[in-house]
């Protein structure tokens, strides 16, 4: 059954229902705005025994309903992507894959790629002026047509720009016809100032700390192919930056359980994900952050995590028992 962007977001917002699997750092596209600084020679899976344990843990976790798979460019990791998607399909998991469509540069798309797409419920296909240097319109149209033939829902992601949106709509019409909305949608994304993107984009608008709501991404941990588990999918955290509290290492089922359970049980992370970062500025330890301005919730989140040591805090535990549903 297909999953739309709204449906994917709704599932990710509910703690414990989804997880992101990061299968490779590698990507041949070389976009100047890449938020994880992926390159053609970046690391990928070397220990397939460990990777197999990670995939098995996800597949056998009854609570996880939807599995996202990203990178890098996941389709450059043929063995790992094929293993993961087949195992998840066998386990009845719904799957969402994020790709640039670089695999459609050839006229004939390989059968193994079509098999992976057949196992997906949604495919996020990214395009913008940066991708266009390596992935031309013909390639993107071929990618969209190949995905549509496999029958998952298509989310074409573009930067939040009027010209990019118009170009995306034209490409979808060229690929799928004038009724393309029956098969796909366009999702506008804010440029990320992580990785190489820090040299391209800047955030001008800044918001007072007290105004930030919950970060739903903190409800859905991510695991990388090498066993690095993070509390969210922030690109800098994936690349081992930011507070160490957001990362744990795992090698088997027990340590994966411990890592994810630890994130879900962490009172500070629960407040950030469920109640709101702004609410935390009412805590005496963070009161000065209420009037400070931040460009995004990640900047505020890191400040909060750096100040609060792990361990019990009665006031924090009380705040964690609250719930606020409106995300900023």
From TrEMBL:
Pfam families: Radical_SAM. Keywords: Iron, Iron-sulfur, Metal-binding, S-adenosyl-L-methionine. The keyword Zinc-finger does not apply. The keyword S-adenosyl-L-methionine applies. Residues 23-133 form the Radical SAM core domain. SUPFAM superfamilies: Radical SAM enzymes. Signal peptide: none annotated. Its cofactor is [4Fe-4S] cluster. InterPro entries: Aldolase_TIM (IPR013785), rSAM (IPR007197), rSAM_sf (IPR058240). One of its GO terms (molecular function) is catalytic activity. This is Radical SAM.
